[in-house]
Design goal:
By secondary structure, the chain is mostly beta strands. The chain has eight domains: 172 residues, Jelly Rolls (Sandwich); 86 residues; 91 residues, Immunoglobulin-like (Sandwich), CATH 2.60.40; 88 residues, Immunoglobulin-like, CATH 2.60.40; 88 residues, Immunoglobulin-like; 71 residues, Sandwich (Immunoglobulin-like), CATH 2.60.40; 70 residues, Immunoglobulins (Immunoglobulin-like, Sandwich); 80 residues, Immunoglobulin-like. It contains nine helices and 56 strands. The strands form 17 sheets. The protein has a six-stranded mixed β-sheet with strand order 1-3-12-6-7-9, with no helix packed on it. A five-stranded mixed β-sheet has the order 2-13-5-8-10. The longest helix is centred in the N-terminal third of the chain and has 8 residues.
Amino acid sequence: MILKPNLFLNKYFLIISALSFSIFCLGQEPNDCINAVTVCGNSSFSFDVNGQGVEEVQGLSDCGSGENNSIWFQVTIATSGTLAFTLTPSSTAISEDYDFFLFGPNATCGNLGQTIRCSTTNPAAANQGNNRTGMSPDDPDPNEGPGADGDSFVSDLDVLAGETYFLVIDRPIGNSPFSLEWTGTATFPESPSNPVLTNPNITSLPPLELCDRTAPFDDDITQVDFTSLTQDIINGANDVAVSYHISENDATININPLGNIFTSFPITQTVFIRIENTVTGCFIINDIVINITSFSNFNNPSTYQLCDDDTDGDDQNGQTTFDFDVKTQEIENGILGANLNISYHLSEGDAVANTSALPTIYTNTSATPTEIFARIEDINTGCVGFTSFNIIVAAKPIANDVSLIQCDEDGIPEGFTTFNLNEINSEITNNDANAIISYYLSQTDAENETDAINPDAFENFFNPQIIYARVTNTVTGCVSFSEVSLEVSTTSSNDASIAVCDADGTEDGFATFNLNDTNAIVLAGAPAGLDLQYYETYEDALVEVNPLTANFTNTIPYNQTIYTRVENANACYGISEIELTVYELPDIETEFETLYCLNSFPETIVLDAGVINDSPSNYLFDWSTGEDTATIEVDAPGTYNVRVSNVNGCFKDRTITVLPSNIATIDAIEVVDASNNNTITVLVSGEGDYEYALDDIDGPYQDSNIFEDILPGLYTVFVRDKNDCGISEELVSVIGFPKFFTPNGDGVNEFWQVRGISRQFQPNTSILIFDRYGKLLAELNPLSGGWDGTYNGALMPSSDYWFKVQLEDGRTFTSHFSLVR
């Protein structure tokens, strides 16, 4: 016998999902006798347990224990035989401990009596090889347990048709679900079937798709009528009861039925169907998914905006006529097979109640924007949807009639000139930032937007002349029109000129002018209250573009003509020329430096004003000395200034720095002589810049005042001022002793004498010559030619000879030299 699957009896479903009673949202669960699950058919099934409910087993069993996590089954016997089963936990862990208790026959929940079979053996404590339990024909014991007693199995039971038993499954230890397989020969009553489902292995009916047909129509809640479905399931049987429930738990224990007609929950929900055999109590549970959606198979219309018009005699009152057929087409556009009934209403309530529908051709009576509500009913399905859109009457832009007066300044007073129409844009629109203007020769052209004229430079051909402005609001697209009167004025204003010196630090012919300096000249003789504006070109002045600021730097060097436009309340009075001139500054050398030799006083030097490439007679001079000539003479160092001015009054200043210089004063000469490196150091003072030479007034000169590696002898030291203020000189002696002499009659190096001695230097020096044995050979006169290498008229042989020199300054030197023949 095949049991119709439900949450409790569908082994496949429960094994896959491991579903437990803990998911039920209501409190009534089959862990109490009164809520016991009716067992139908004899198929095996899987289940889980959770909680004990009301403790009903404690004390009614020889096995001890009670309810911990329990589930109750009510078993009614259809045909006699044996009642047996095997309970297998899903987990093989030996710690998973399942107990069971069997009451009956014909026990009631209020009077269960004592158990007739029970097992509370702990498989881990009993050292079992597995964790299964149950009733078996192979075990003689009616009960086992608690703890380590037995092997968890007890004997089967002979049962008779019509008897009813209560089986309690309990799990005191562990958390694994279990499967229950009926192994006895007795059978159970058959479950009912659902004739709507042709396949008995399927529990779900096809989804029910409904639209929200109950106000409010956008909450996805509506009324569901299962009357026909109930009749189809019963199929004329008188022993079948059908009920609908919000949860599978409610359906299982048959509580909280919804009725055949009920209000759905939002959007998507599952309804569980309990189909029960009223005779046997066996039941199956099917389910059906209900999807509730708001009707939306239509387009949401856009804002409906029209420009105000004068069809009602007033184009500024914010009222116009709307054709709602335009929105109907938009709502239905692209919807295949659309069969819609659409009405329009001023309120959402009217749309929902389908009252006070507006006419298709509708003229608003109140200010916009106004929200219009559309009721959309699908004639085929009865579904109703709603949408809304705003109607807006956009105001027409302001378009004032204006006049524009322009000057006729082209030299031909015929009344024709060039107008810049853009200068009146703000006057036409009252400075509307969202308005654009185009201009036309006729009203027809303006309305049709044909042959627009160039507003930047329009040349009139009548005086005065009427043209037409088309004003368009860039946001709304609404259009207005106005007339523009153009008139040419033949009045005039005065020309003027400004001249400035090129004194901005860069002599390039560019300078900054204060144009306001010409205002009085330009307006001389004109009426009061006129306005001026300056422009770089005549064309700019004529059409009033690119105005200049009061401080203007010319863009053409030295000479440039610009223009000033004189207006009377935006009407051109005249255009004048302004001549701008930048005068050149005198071309002079502004900085100069020279020298004055103090030793030449009272002689003078000449200073000039430094004029370049021009005659000094073309300039005026103002010296810091009070003189006004092109040159002056001075006899002292210092700073002299002169201002050089040209005939235009432009000037430059020249600064002349006269530095002092002087011939050198030789304060001392320091000599290091009679050494391997004789030196002469010259010490001077004075205001000049000096250089030094030895023995030659023409040089070469050196910057250093020290001369090194000087041979013995007499020298003249020259000190020259680099600024040509003169040369100072002084004699100097460098004492030295020759290493040898050669008195061989060739006229070269015939005598030995101490060098550097003269009548001016060391004339009283004592010079003695000895042979190698200390014999005095000669005493020399320091001013004589020296020793000739003889003694008492005899030639002395080549050898080393000794000398002793005692200089006049007190220094004494003793050494030797060689006589070489």
